[in-house]
Amino acid sequence: MEAGGAGEVDHLAGERATAQFDVDHMKVAWAGSRHAVDVADRMARLVASDPVFRKDNRTMLPRKELFKDTLRKAAHAWKRIVELRLTEEEANLLRLYVDQPGYVDLHWGMFVPAIKGQGTEEQQKKWLPLAYKFQIIGCYAQTELGHGSNVQGLETTATFDPKTDEFVMHSPTLTSSKWWPGGLGKASTHAVVYARLITEGKDYGIHGFIVQLRSLEDHSPLPGVTLGDIGGKFGSGAYNSMDNGVLRFDHVRIPRDQMLMRLSQVTKEGKYVHSNVPKQLLYGTMVFVRQTIVADASKALSRATCIAVRYSAMRKQFGPQTGGPETQVLNYKTQQSRLFPLLASAYAFRFVGEWLKWLYTDVTHKLEAKDFSTLQEAHACTAGLKAVTTSATADGIEECRKLCGGHGYLNSSGLPELFATYVPACTYEGDNVVLLLQVARILMKTVSQLASGKQPVGTMAYMGNVQYLMQCKCGVNTAEDWLSPAAIREVFEARALRMAVNCAQNINRAPSQEEGLYELSPDLLEVAVAHIQLIIVTKFIEKVEQDIPGEGVKEQLRNLCNVYALYLVHKHLGDFLSTGCMTARQGALANQQLGKLYAQLRPNAVALVDAFNYTDHYLGSVLGRYDGNVYPALYDEAWKDPLNDSPVPDGYREHLRPLLKQQLKLSRL
Ligand SMILES: CCCCCCCCCCC/C=C/C(=O)SCCNC(=O)CCNC(=O)[C@H](O)C(C)(C)COP(=O)(O)OP(=O)(O)OC[C@H]1O[C@@H](n2cnc3c(N)ncnc32)[C@H](O)[C@@H]1OP(=O)(O)O
Ligand SMILES: Cc1cc2nc3c(=O)[nH]c(=O)nc-3n(C[C@H](O)[C@H](O)[C@H](O)COP(=O)(O)OP(=O)(O)OC[C@H]3O[C@@H](n4cnc5c(N)ncnc54)[C@H](O)[C@@H]3O)c2cc1C
Known about the structure:
Blueprint: H1 13-17, H2 23-31, H3 34-48, H4 63-83, H5 88-98, H6 103-118, H7 121-132, E1 138-141, E2 157-161, E3 166-170, E4 178-179, E5 190-199, E6 202-212, E7 225-229, E8 245-249, E9 252-255, E10 264-266, E11 272-274, H8 284-314, E12 316-317, E13 327-328, H9 333-368, H10 375-403, H11 415-422, H12 432-450, H13 466-469, H14 485-509, H15 513-519, H16 521-545, H17 553-571, H18 573-578, H19 584-601, H20 605-610, H21 616-619, H22 630-639, H23 652-668
Parallel strand pairs: 1-5, 2-5
Antiparallel strand pairs: 2-3, 3-9, 4-8, 5-6, 7-8, 10-11, 12-13
Helix pairs in contact: 3-5, 4-5, 6-7, 6-8, 8-9, 8-10, 9-10, 9-16, 9-17, 10-11, 10-12, 10-16, 12-14, 12-16, 14-15, 14-16, 16-17, 17-19
Bound molecules: ligand L4XM7KOE and flavin-adenine dinucleotide (FAD).
Flavin-adenine dinucleotide (FAD) binds near residues 143, 430 and 437.
Family: Belongs to the acyl-CoA oxidase family.
Cofactor: FAD
Subcellular location: Peroxisome
């Protein structure tokens, strides 16, 4: 927990004293409201003080024990949620702070939303109460051994039999085996299974079905159902607590009313009826989860930067040539230029995540009123932001590990496990490249419609300003000019639009649209990234323009926003120069200003990560401790490794002793 207890020394007190803003108010800005800070605080402390939720031994547990530990924690969490009558908000936070991937994530995160989004009212009435009380455990079984990205390529079949009013679920090939769903391997009793609907001899494509997989009596797989875990995954601990599973059906029968029938129905005679709604609503659960993944990116990156900032403030290496105390590594300009953009990105992702949640809620309300006009915007924003934020976060966690030097490589730093747990976010819920290509295709469509005078809306509205943005010149003359939000916004808009228009022109030169899209797909990725970065920068600017209480809080956020934007200008300078948005001199001025911003951020760095309000339990890092007392913690942690249980290791008698004795004999010859 945080420092302040009797006898504790705050080794970072000096750093905290230099902060130029009110940390308590920054906590509110980060969490979204005073209420959010208070609830999070209570739940984090509840978890941290409960011995069942201990996790410092997690990377040393063999897989079977780790899995059992996950079941124990999930059951205990549920017991506490019921005993304490926690609200949904409190329960979600409690699960977050337990911080161990497990079947409950998929049960609450995908199974329940899939039924809510795609089930009829009657189906929701039947299944949701069972799920809410954990009388059934569900997962989301979409991906197969042969196809994940290409959902329309899935092979599992659900063939309607009008004689018995049932669907027959079948896995016709090895590649049709469901493969990857979390919670499927060992825990789930039910799944929402995506399969090709076949009725009256016709294949109507992919639809969702609720299928019971295991007995509710003894948990054994039901007849015709083959189930198992797909095996160990990257890293120690990490995502290995999750039972990602394999599932095969051998002509398994389910009642007709277990097809999720909100979007389309099959009558008892076998007639297929599609409601008058876009087919893409079938992908609604993925859109929902992609939106939550953006919020999670800021959590993961803020954890990593919290560890790296605190440790860098405490770690010292080298000193002035003239002697004197050694230098805190956080004072090295190279350390700042690697770390501060990541800190700024954590804040940027937090605020764009907040905005995306608003967008998602708004679109959901419109869909309920049968207004589908914002579906494309929701898809483009969730897909693109999921891709850009998860890739940057995965890279950022690894950079934080390097920023902590050798100690960052130890499991006790928390960073290897954080990375191993986080990195599949670049793949699940849509491979990032596949998702960015979706965004790019929508951008290409928007460009092609500009000539007809159709005005783009939402986050693409800037493209309507094509006449101006295609020829405008950046007005920056001094480094300080880069502090203008209007100047920043304009270069990001001009870069994104010009890249999109250039790409569209190149595609038009190809023999066919399809060939053009295929040949230019690497360029299309960059077009999508430029557009999504514009959204993140814009939402950060808009956040800073709001009324933000607390001494110095707005100034710090403005500084972080400028760091984020100018770091991107520096990193993608090639784009900005090649599209003619700015000159090389203006690029140099941006970099000059970035250096000044880092210097202003430096005295606030530790307080800016304190504002995340993470307990030591949640951080799970000896390097990121609130009190900065790193060395005794590192030293103590080493002795907890099972290898140190005895001074002479197992295996000495069989493998070391004979070797050493033989060397002794040889030396006597
Ligand atoms: C409290 C919450 C806690 C949450 C905790 C969660 C923990 C997470 C743990 C991780 C679990 C992981 C789960 C999974 O991974 S589940 C499996 C996810 N799988 C995927 O994401 C597959 C990706 N593939 C796809 O989405 C589609 O196949 C793809 C979009 C790539 C292609 O679709 P399709 O074959 O239909 O073809 P098109 O590209 O031609 O698209 C046709 C039109 O549809 C539009 N479109 C596509 N997707 C969507 C969408 N989602 N919404 C709206 N519209 C969509 C597309 O733009 C095309 O439009 P046009 O016809 O106008 O061009
Ligand atoms: C930890 C984890 C948890 C998961 N949980 C679930 C779950 O609960 N439920 C579930 O149903 N699924 C789950 N999945 C599966 C996940 O959704 C898929 O792995 C993901 O959608 C990627 O699909 P794929 O594996 O088929 O990759 P592939 O599509 O085979 O990707 C391989 C490579 O091909 C590239 N590629 C593919 N298509 C294109 C294209 N059109 N253009 C250019 N490049 C392309 C990709 O960029 C990638 O580099 C999980 C996966 C992981 C790793």
